[in-house]
Amino acid sequence: MDTLINDISLNDENEMTTLLVLAEYGNAKAQYRLALRYKNGHGVTRDDAKALEWFHASATNGYACAQYMLGEFYRWGQLVKLNYLSAACWYEKAALQNHAEAQYELGWMYQNRRGVELDYEKAVYWYSKAATQNHPRALYALGWLYENGRGVAYNKEKAAQYFQAAWQRGVVDAKIHLESLC
Question: Model's pTM, two decimal places?
Answer without folding.
Answer: 0.91
